[in-house]
Specification:
The chain crosses the membrane at residues 183-210, 222-250. Keywords: Membrane, Transmembrane, Transmembrane helix. The protein is α+β, with helices and mostly antiparallel strands. Helix content is 55%, strand content 13%. The protein has 2 domains: 2-8 and 22-264, no CATH class; 285-407, Roll (PH-domain like), CATH 2.30.29. The strands form 3 sheets. The protein has an 8-stranded mixed β-sheet with strand order 7-6-5-3-10-9-8-11. A two-stranded antiparallel sheet has the order 1-2. Helix 4 crosses helix 11 (250-272) and helix 9 (209-228) packs across helix 10. The termini are far apart.
C-alpha cells in the first residue's frame, strides 16, 4: 500500500512577489509501507546476526544483479567481502552442530572465542556497512521519515525563506536528513545488537551443549523469519517488537554483555591459553554482583573487599561515572567461596538453610580460590563433587531468567 504526500517548490521565473510560500520540502516525499518494512527488517536482521545477514544479503544482491552491473556494486556486496564471511559462518555452523556432542566444559572455551572475537568483530564490520547503505540511499524511507520530522520541527524556518533560498539550502538539508537517518539507524542497530549479544551470552552460560545448539538455532530462525517477511506488515510488526524489547531491556542486556565479554576474555586467556592472572590485588577482588545490593542491580561489574568486618561492594555507574560503595552489612564468616564450574562464586548461608549467591568472581582467579578466600575472610570450600558444581551452575543460569533476590543494606 502506498500513501504519499508531496510538496512542490514555487515557480521563481520572474513572477511578482507574493505571499510567503507554504512549508515545502526539498525532495518529493513518497512513503511506501512495504519498502519501509523491508528497511526495518534489514536493519533488525543485520543487528541480530551481522555475519549471517552480511553474507546472505551480499550474495543475494550480487547474484540477482545483471552481470554487467556487478562491477559497479558497493564494496559490501562484492564477493571479496561477503565470501570470507560465508566461510566463517560455515565454520560456526559446524561448531554449533557437532559441538552438541561434546561436554560443556570442552565447548565453553570455543563459545568464548566466538563471543570475544567473531561477534564483536562482525558488529564493528556491520556498522560501516550500515552507514554506507544509508549514505548511498538504500534506506530512502528512513530518510523520508527524517524529512517529515524536519518539516514538522522547523515549519516556520522553511516557510519564511524564498524558493531560491530553499533551493540553495537543499544540499545542506539533504546532508542534515542523511545525518539524522544515520543516527537513527545506528541507535536502533546498537540497541538490537546488544540484545542479540546478550542472547549469545546466555548461550555461552547454558550448562548443556544441546541447549546451546537449540538456543542458537532459535536465534538464527528468528533472523531468517524477519528477513523472509521483509516487505510485509508481519515482518514490520515482528521487527518492531524486537526493537521495542531491545530498547526496554537495554540496561539489563548491556550489563549482561559486559559480563559475557569479561568472562569470555578470562576463559580464553586464563583458562584456554593458561596465562597467569598475576598477583592478587590488595584492595579487593573484581567480580559481578549476583543479587541486588540495595539499588545496585545484578551483573554490576565492581570490586568486593572487606572493610571494618563487613563485605563492601564498589562499582561505577555505566563503568565510567561516579563511584558508589555499598556496605552489604554481611560478615565474611557467614559466607563461603565455592570453586564452581565457570568461575568461583561467593554464597551467603542464611538462617533458614538457603544459600544466596552474592557475587561471581572473574575466572582469572580460578586457580587462586584459597588466596581469594583468605583476602576476603570467607570460608573456602574446594567442592570436589562435580555434580554439585554442575547443579549450582544450573541454578545460577535459571536465576538469570528470573528476578534476582534483593538484600537490604545498612543505610
Amino acid at each position: 500500500m502506498l500513501f504519499s504526500s508531496s510538496f512542490v517548490l514555487a515557480d521563481t521565473s520572474g513572477s511578482s512577489p507574493g505571499p510567503a510560500p507554504a512549508p515545502m520540502s526539498y525532495k518529493q516525499v513518497i512513503f511506501n509501507a512495504e519498502l519501509l518494512s523491508q528497511e526495518i527488517a534489514q536493519l533488525t536482521g543485520l543487528a541480530l546476526n551481522p555475519i549471517l545477514c552480511m553474507s546472505a544479503l551480499g550474495a543475494y544482491s550480487y547474484f540477482s544483479a545483471p552481470e554487467q552491473a556487478r562491477p559497479a556494486l558497493p564494496w559490501h556486496l562484492s564477493p571479496k567481502f561477503w565470501a570470507p564471511l560465508a566461510v566463517v559462518l560455515g565454520m560456526i555452523f559446524l561448531k554449533d552442530t557437532f559441538g552438541a556432542a561434546f561436554p560443556k566444559l570442552l565447548k565453553s572455551p570455543l563459545d568464548a572465542v566466538e563471543i570475544l572475537f567473531e561477534k564483536n568483530t562482525s558488529a564493528l564490520i556491520a556498522l560501516p556497512v550500515l552507514l554506507t547503505s544509508v549514505t548511498q540511499g538504500e534506506f530512502q524511507q528512513l530518510e523520508q521519515l527524517s524529512q517529515q520530522a524536519y518539516d514538522s520541527l522547523f515549519p516556520v524556518a522553511v516557510a519564511a525563506g524564498s524558493a531560491d533560498a530553499a533551493l540553495n539550502a537543499g544540499a545542506g538539508v539533504d546532508l542534515l536528513l542523511m545525518t539524522m537517518a544515520s543516527i537513527t539507524a545506528t541507535m536502533i542497530f546498537i540497541a538490537v545488537w546488544v540484545l542479540s549479544q546478550a542472547f549469545n551470552v546466555l548461550i555461552l552460560l547454558c550448562p548443556f551443549s544441546l541447549g546451546d545448539a537449540l538456543l542458537a538455532a532459535a536465534k538464527n530462525a528468528l533472523v531468517l523469519l524477519i528477513i523472509g517477511l521483509s516487505g510485509t506488515y508481519a515482518g514490520a510488526l515482528l521487527s518492531g517488537v524486537v526493537i521495542a524489547f531491545a530498547v526496554y531491556l537495554f540496561p539489563k542486556t548491556l550489563r549482561l554483555v559486559v559480563f559475557g565479554t569479561v568472562m569470555s576474555h578470562d576463559l580464553v586467556f586464563y583458562k584456554l591459553l593458561r596465562s597467569r592472572g598475576g598477583s592478587l590485588p590488595s584492595d579487593g577482588i573484581r567480580c559481578f554482583s549476583s543479587c541486588y545490593f540495595g539499588r545496585t542491580p545484578p551483573l554490576t561489574y565492581g570490586k568486593l573487599a572487606q572493610k571494618d568486618g563487613f563485605l563492601v561492594f564498589s562499582s561505577r555507574s555505566y563503568l565510567f561515572f561516579s563511584k558508589k560503595t555499598v556496605n552489604t552489612g554481611i560478615e565474611p564468616s557467614t559466607c563461603e567461596l565455592i570453586r564452581g564450574i565457570i568461575s568461583p562464586v561467593i554464597v551467603l548461608q542464611q538462617d533458614d538453610g538457603d544459600q544466596v549467591q552474592l557475587v561471581r568472581i572473574r575466572p582469572k582467579f580460578y586457580r587462586d580460590t584459597q588466596e581469594v578466600a583468605d583476602l576476603l575472610g570467607v570460608r573456602w570450600s574446594d567442592e570436589a563433587v562435580l555434580i554439585k558444581r554442575f547443579s549450582g551452575a544450573v541454578q545460577w543460569y535459571l536465576a538469570l531468567l528470573r528476578k534476582a533476590p534483593r538484600l537490604d543494606v545498612p543505610g
